[in-house]
Amino acid sequence: MLGIQEVESDDKSVEPADDLRNEVLQFNTNCPECNAPAETNMKLVQVPHFKEVVIMATNCEACGHRTNEVKSGGAIEPLGTKITLHVTDPSDMTRDLLKSETCRVEIPELEFEMGMGALGGKFTTLEGLLKDIQTLVEKNPFTLGDSCTPGRAEKLSAFSRKLQQILDGQLRVHFVMDDPAGNSYLQNVYAPEEDPELCVEHYERSFEQNEELGLNDMKTEDYETEKASSEQ
């Protein structure tokens, strides 16, 4: 009825889910920078010791703009997750991390906090995320033109220099990822053993956090009974 023809695989032992993990799906879209026609690649990836995620990448051949976005492959976790890494060695920059759209990032030593939605969802390394933050700071419109004040420009410049010191391994800080949806991840290089520099805490979400995630109005159990009662 939908005009979709089922293609039978010769290998009956391959599960549909496994076949999807090995396949890169493509669909047509438009470049967010120049609006030229482009293709977006989408793939289901299993993050070791975590869960499945969906990675979407777009490369525009017209202007060269490249984007990548990560979506969690599962549901919102029952508990929120707070991940704290004590950055003590340059090798920490190579740790893989998954930052979901609902994750806040903090560096207490720099009095820095980045809220939900900033930079979107990303699957990268700690170095890659810090460089994205550095680029975001340096391209801040308040650091350019007439809207820039000497004091603000100097503070942002000093913050950028400290970020570079972290990237060069010259500054030890605590890197915090707080995700109330529990869909963010930072690599434990000692897995399955405990990492002495990595702390993962699970916590009950507050009413405000559930409200922001849209969970307070979401009813998934006994909703048929409540609907019948309200109609009566």
Automatic annotation (TrEMBL):
Biased composition (Basic and acidic residues): 218-232
Alphabetized Gene3D superfamilies for the sequence: ZPR1, A/B domain, ZPR1, zinc finger domain
Domain of life of the native organism: Eukaryota
Keyword Zinc-finger in annotation: yes
One Pfam family, short name: Zn_ribbon_ZPR1
InterPro entries per record: Znf_ZPR1, ZPR1, ZPR1_A/B_dom, ZPR1_jr_dom, ZPR1_Znf1/2
Residue ranges occupied by any Zinc finger ZPR1-type domain in the UniProt entry: 29-188
Keywords noted in UniProt: Metal-binding, Zinc, Zinc-finger
Coiled coil regions in record: none
Annotated region described as Disordered, given as residue ranges: 209-232
Record carries keyword Metal-binding: yes
NCBIfam families the UniProt entry points to: ZPR1_znf (TIGR00310)
Family membership noted in the UniProt record: Belongs to the ZPR1 family.
Full protein name: Zinc finger protein ZPR1
